[in-house]
Design goal:
The chain has 356 residues and is α+β, with helices and mostly antiparallel strands. It is 30% helix and 27% strand. The strands form four sheets. It has an eleven-stranded mixed β-sheet, with helices on one face. The chain has a three-stranded antiparallel β-sheet with strand order 2-12-13, with no helix packed on it. It has a three-stranded antiparallel β-sheet with strand order 7-9-8. Helix 6 runs antiparallel to helix 7. It is globular and about 60 Å long.
C-alpha cells in the first residue's frame, strides 16, 4: 500500500465505527417507564448514553452525554422522530412518500412538495453542479436497469442503456413555485445519496435543542458529531479498512460530519463481473477501482452527497474538487489494477489522523 498526499480540502467515502474508549463493560440502564426505548450507558466520565434502532434500511445509533438514562431518552425521542419523518417523506420504498408520488406523476405534471423535500432536492442539484454531474439524484433509471441486469445475469444492451441515460439529468428537474416536474419521460429521483445525511443533521439539531451538549448521530456508518466527548477533547473515529489494507486510520476530530463510501461494502455481480453499487450517472456504468472514500465536512448533508460524487469522479478529479472547497477533507483508497491499494489524502486530512 502506498500513500500519496495532496494539498487540498475535500472528502470521499469509506465506512466508520465510532471509537470512544467504549471498552468499558457495557451496562444496560433502561430509563424507568421507557420500555419502548432501550437506553444503555456506555461511558462513565462523563456519563454517555446510547440507543440503537432500525431506520432508513440500516442501523441508527444515537449517543449523548446526559445526567441519566431518562434524560437521555427524552433527548433521543425528538431526534428519532426527525429520522423517521425524513424516511416517510423521501424513501422510494414507501409508495405513499412524497418522492414516490413525484416519481409516479412528475413526468406528467408538477407535483407539490413539502419544504423539506424541496430543500433536499435543491441541495442535490447544487451537489450535482459542483461535481459536474458525478452526483445526480435522477440516476434512478440506471439503478433500475442494473437491478434487472443482476436478476437476469445479463449486461445491459446499448439500446437499454441509451434509453435509461435519456431519462437521467439533474438539469431536467424543473422547480415551479413549490412544485416540481420532470422535463423528460421516464425520469425518477432517488434521494438515497443525500437524504440520510439530511436526516442525520436534523437529528443532531434535535438532540441539541433537547439539551444535549455533546453527542453522535450514526445512521449506517455516516456520522454527525457535536460538542466534545469531554472538555477540550475530540471524537475518535476509526476508518473501516477495506480488504487488503492493513494500516489502521483513526481520526481525532472536533464537531463535524464523517461519511464513508466503498465498493467493498456493497456490490453485485453480473456475468461473473464484480461490480460496485456506485453508478456513474454520466456513463451509466459501475464505478471501478475506488475502494473507499472518507469525507469530513461541516454537515452530513454535504458529506453524504459529495462522498458519492467524489467516488464517481475518481482520485485525481475528486481531489481537485476537494482542494477548492473550504472546511472539508478527504482520504481516498484507490485499488490499482494488478497492484496495491493507493491512499490519497487532501492537504489537511493527515492533521486529523491520530499518531500520523
Amino acid at each position: 500500500m502506498s500513500v500519496r498526499r495532496h494539498r487540498s480540502v475535500w472528502v470521499l467515502v469509506a465506512t466508520f465505527a465510532v471509537v470512544a474508549g467504549l471498552l468499558l463493560a457495557l451496562r444496560r440502564a433502561y430509563a424507568p417507564g421507557d420500555a419502548d426505548l432501550a437506553v444503555q450507558q456506555i461511558a462513565e466520565d462523563p456519563p454517555r448514553y446510547e440507543t440503537v434502532l432500525a431506520a432508513m434500511g440500516t442501523d441508527a445509533r444515537f449517543q449523548v452525554v446526559a445526567g441519566s438514562a431518562r434524560q437521555a431518552a427524552d433527548m433521543f425521542r425528538p431526534a428519532i422522530e426527525q429520522v423517521r419523518r425524513v424516511e416517510r417523506l423521501m424513501s422510494t420504498y414507501l409508495p405513499e412518500s412524497e418522492i414516490s408520488r413525484l416519481n409516479a406523476h412528475g413526468s406528467q405534471e408538477a407535483v407539490g412538495l413539502s419544504p423539506d423535500v424541496l430543500h433536499v432536492l435543491h441541495k442535490a442539484v447544487e451537489a450535482s453542479e459542483l461535481t459536474g454531474g458525478a452526483f445526480d439524484v435522477t440516476y434512478a433509471p440506471l439503478r433500475t436497469l442494473w437491478r434487472a441486469a443482476e436478476r437476469q445475469n445479463r449486461m445491459p444492451g446499448p439500446e437499454a442503456m441509451d434509453q435509461a441515460l435519456a431519462a437521467v439529468g439533474y438539469d431536467k428537474i424543473v422547480f415551479e413555485d413549490g412544485r416540481v416536474r420532470f422535463a423528460a419521460p421516464g425520469m425518477e429521483v432517488d434521494l438515497g445519496g443525500i437524504a440520510k445525511g439530511y436526516a442525520i443533521d436534523l437529528a443532531a439539531a434535535a438532540l441539541q435543542e433537547a439539551g444535549a451538549e455533546a453527542g453522535i448521530v450514526d445512521v449506517g456508518g455516516d456520522l454527525r458529531l457535536f460538542g466534545a466527548p469531554e472538555p477540550g477533547g475530540r471524537w475518535r473515529v476509526a476508518v473501516r479498512r477495506p480488504p487488503g489494507v492493513n494500516k489502521e486510520f483513526v481520526l481525532g476530530v472536533p464537531a463535524c460530519a464523517v461519511t464513508t463510501s466503498g465498493d467493498y461494502a456493497r456490490w453485485f455481480e453480473v456475468e461473473g463481473q464484480h461490480l460496485s453499487h456506485i453508478i456513474d450517472p454520466r456513463t451509466g456504468r459501475s464505478v471501478a477501482h475506488m475502494t473507499s472514500v472518507t469525507l469530513v465536512a461541516p454537515d452530513a448533508t454535504t458529506a453524504d452527497a459529495l462522498a458519492t460524487g467524489v467516488s464517481v469522479m475518481g482520485a485525481q478529479a475528486g481531489l481537485a474538487l476537494v482542494d477548492s472547497l473550504p472546511d472539508v477533507e478527504c482520504m481516498i483508497m484507490e485499488r490499482l489494477q494488478d497492484g496495491p491499494t493507493q491512499v490519497h489524502m487532501s492537504g489537511g486530512f493527515s492533521d486529523l489522523l491520530e499518531g500520523w
